Amino acid sequence: MKEIIKAWKHIFKLDPDREMADDTLDAVCMSGSDAIMVGGSSGITYENTVDLLSRVRRYELPCVQEVSDLSAVVPGFDLYMIPMVLNTDDSRWITGLHQAAIEEYGYMIPWELLVPEGYIVLNSDSTVAKLTEAHTDIEESSVTAYAQVADKLMNLPIVYIEYSGTFGDMPTVRAAQQVISNAQLFYGGGICDYDTAVEAAKVSDTIVVGNIVYSDLQAAISTVKAVKLE
Ligand code: 1GP
Q1: Among 41, 185, 209, 212, which residue has the most ligand 1 atoms within 8 Å of its CB, making it the best to mutate?
Q2: What is the pLDDT of residues 164-175, one digit of tens each?
Q3: Contact 13 CB / ligand 1 (< 6 Å)
Q4: What's the longest Cα–Cα distance across the chain?
Q5: 83 lines ligand 1 (CB under 6 A)
């Protein structure tokens, strides 16, 4: 199952804490995107996650959960994405919470469904940056070094450059792409239309589109076309 991720060029990330009308969800799930990722940095509960999963399950595309809160882990997703934030000094976000989760729930973890992601968080205003106290003001050389830690030392299958809420610095993302040997490069943050999707897709393997779904559905749908026509 994990292998299917390699073919993904486009993911919609949906926040269970935000309202989405049925016709909007229908358009998102029928857009041609490769997968739905359910997750967010705040307000995620078991109940709102179950609700969103059950609604997305009416459609054929894969649905994965990005785990940010243990109390909201819901059975029935195709895969579970496990973020490890690399550019923080707070080891809880790198291995600490993971260790605690395994100590408590290790006996019931479906390991074959877990996919770790090496996160490099670069927008200081984002909730995730504040929560994890990520060092966002770093040089390109520092970003590429983190990318290599994830790819070459930790052998993580995914490096995720996260600018959530703002469109990132594409030369920096490209620099990371150039030093990665095996990992798949996810880019997320501020993709808001066809053109930004094209730009981001040029420097990454997979683009993740979030916020725009909630404010401009047609623009969000156009990001799929941008990637599929590439
Ligand atoms: C958030 O990377 C995703 O985790 C997408 O970011 O919401 O800015 O599109 P946006």
Answers
A1: 209
A2: 999 999 999 999
A3: yes
A4: 46
A5: no
| Alpha carbon of 125 to ligand 1 centroid (Å) | 12
Q: Which letter, b or e, does each residue of 172-207 get, where b requires 16 or more Cβ atoms within 10 Å of its Cβ?
A: bbebbbeebeebbbbbbbbbbebebbbbbbebbbbb
Residue 230: pLDDT over 70: no
The SS3 assignment for 73 reads coil
Position 228 pLDDT exceeds 90: no
Q: What is the pLDDT of residue 146?
A: 98
Q: Is the CB of 209 under 6 A from ligand 1?
A: yes
Sketch out the chain's domains with CATH numbers.
3-229 (3.20.20.390)
Helix (H, G, I), strand (E, B) or coil at 44: coil
Q: What is the mean pLDDT of residues 119-131?
A: 97
CA of 212 to the centre of ligand 1 (A): 9
pLDDT at position 204: 98
